[in-house]
Amino acid sequence: MKKETKSLSVCSKSRSFHYSAVCKLILILFFAFFVIMPLIRMLFYINADSIGRVISGSLFVPAVINSIKVALISTVIALILAYALAVCVERSGIKFAGFWNIILILPMLIPSISHGMGLIVLLGNNGIITRLFGLSWNIYGMWGIVIGSVMYAFPVAFLMIRDVLKYEDRSPYEAAEILGIPKWRQFTAITVPYLRKPLISVIFAVFTMVVTDYGVPLIVGGKFSTIPVVMYQEVIGQLDFGKGAVYGVILLIPAVIAFVFDLLNKDRGNSSFVRREFESGRGRLKRISAYIFCGSVSVCVLLPIVAFVILGFAENYPGNLTFTLENISRTFNLGAGRYLLNSVIIAVLVSVIGVVISFVTAYFTARVKSGASRFLHLIAITSAAIPGIVLGLSYVIVFKGSFIYGTIAILIMVNIIHFIASPYIMMYNSLGKINCNLEAVGETLGVGRLRMVKDVFIPQCSLTICEMFSYFFVNCMMTISAVSFLATTSNKPAALMINQFEAQTQLECAAVISLLILMINILLKFVLYIIKKLMSKTRIANFAAADTVKSVPEEKALSLSR
Fold it and tell me: How far apart are CA 250 and CA 213, in angstroms?
């Protein structure tokens, strides 16, 4: 009997091993084909002639200098702004922290190109604020790009820094207060060392976002060219894939550097070291200052959205701002309905497929440890180092002429690869926190891996799955970089219509599209919020029921003892 049990156990383990090995191999081939291979294929388009034409071009050196300059300035401003906001929300004791969090992340729910257009509506030559106050400045150029880039990137930095501050221990600061150490010294000696490693990730995340974005520079850049804009113009305007490939490799350099630094930067703060949480609201002046600062930033965040509302319902901007609903019907007559439907379909399919691929990959890397798992983990996060505009160009080079080129399928695939790194990391971290002995217990009880995944791991990670779905959906709705080279008139997403309408001086229609994308993303966030609330209540109810069932035998035993 013991021999039979042992042989069955060995067979089960053998089948499990082969199953895992095959799945890992399929996933490795998948990422190699859709991530690594397009980049390698793009490199074959680079030769001495294309390099020479890029370097000798009149725009090359200015574009490189401009991109680095804008990225550095924007990163510094976004970092300072994000840190100040995170301190205000987490440490000042202001009320309605959830409200401030929602307002401050709104820029993440609209395309970067919309931020550029919002600046034009507000501060352009015929902008609302420009005309209202009789201002004479010129928003077009470097500082226009910086302002738009900061608005586009600071919410990401804010979320990252806020999450780190939640886990900081108050004890060192209390000791410093007792010793009479001044505030500035506490900041340099305690806060800076604690934030140093997490800030490296924040800095490179923001820098990469800004240096590879072409939405804001395209709209407000004017004659101030950046590398992504030049690359876009070279490929779209001249169909010069050789020069585009050279610019793509140039854009890869800062992104790869950021990726390597982030990969090596493993220690990002650990909540297990927190012994005492910070007490909020220790000073009235501090709270008032926080309200003023958060309120001021919120106004700046909401102004472009208000501008979209005014513009979207204006009779004829800028001459006639009379309220009208005609712009909505005009926008849909120009095909907005079809393009919005395309966006929603793509976003839903990317979210569903992306969540499945991310979950399966994370399961085999977090729960089934091996050399292949470590390699799969590395190749799965590689996409984080590839800018969207570079990924889109590489897909054009690889798949042009294939059966999926010009279809929704290629847009789905490029979006999955473009955004998969962050959801995968979310799930990898969630699965890594679950008891590592569960699989062994399941094998002992004769429960297979699939049933363990269905009955244990998916319910345990349900909230993370919601966050993954949200991440995929929102980013797909507003991305323009990865799909700009691949979209056709039949499969074009709505976000690309913003640039098209702006180029045709139909700003009202562009504003309507921006507002519709924002509303869809907000609706999705709200629905998922309700779902997560219901999940949490269900989980609490299940725990309570389990405790009740558990306590019944104890009550019977007590009654018998009496």
Answer: 14
Q: What is the DSSP string of 286-305?
A: HHHHHHHHHHHHHHHHHHHH
The single-letter code of the amino acid at 27 is L
pLDDT band for position 418 (cuts 50, 70, 90) = very high
Note whether 105 and 183 are within 8 A (CB). no
Residue 159: name the closest of 209, 218, 211 by CA. Answer: 209
Determine whether domain 9-44+334-562 maps to CATH 1.10.3720.10.
yes
CA distance 144 to 149: 8
Reported as a single tens digit per residue, the pLDDT across 152-207 is 899 989 988 887 777 666 677 767 777 777 777 777 777 777 777 778 878 888 88
If DSSP codes are grouped into helix, strand and coil, which group holds residue 323? Answer: strand
Give backbone dihedrals phi and psi of 322, rounded to 5 degrees, phi first: -65, 140
Q: Which pLDDT does position 82 carry in this prediction?
A: 92
The per-residue pLDDT for range 503-528, each reduced to its tens digit, is 777 888 888 999 999 999 999 999 99
> Could you tell me the two tokens for 373?
């798992």
- Choose among 304, 245, 246: nearest CA to 115: 304
- Helices 421-432 and 408-419: angle between axes, nearest 10 degrees: 50
Cβ contact 117:498 at 8 Å: yes
d(CA 81, CA 117): 22
Q: How many CB atoms lie within 10 A of CB 277?
A: 11
For the domain bounded by 53-324, which CATH number is listed? 1.10.3720.10
Whole-angstrom distance, CA of residue 258 vs CA of residue 384? 9
Cα 296 to chain centroid, rounded: 25
Residue 4: predicted pLDDT? 46
| Per-residue model confidence (pLDDT) at position 409 | 93
Cis peptide leading into residue 318 (ω within 30°): yes
Residue ranges in 367-437 assigned as alpha helix (H): 371-380, 388-399, 408-419, 421-432
Six-digit token pair at 354?
A: 């992306």
CA distance 146 to 12: 59
Predicted TM-score (pTM) of this structure: 0.84
| Residue 377 identity | H
Question: Residue ranges of the domains in the chain?
Answer: 9-44+334-562, 53-324
417: left (phi over 0), alpha (psi -120 to 50) or beta: alpha
CA 26, 407, 231, 210 torsion: positive or negative? negative
Measure the N-to-C terminal CA separation of the chain; round to a whole number of Å.
45
Distance CA 81, CA 354 (A): 32
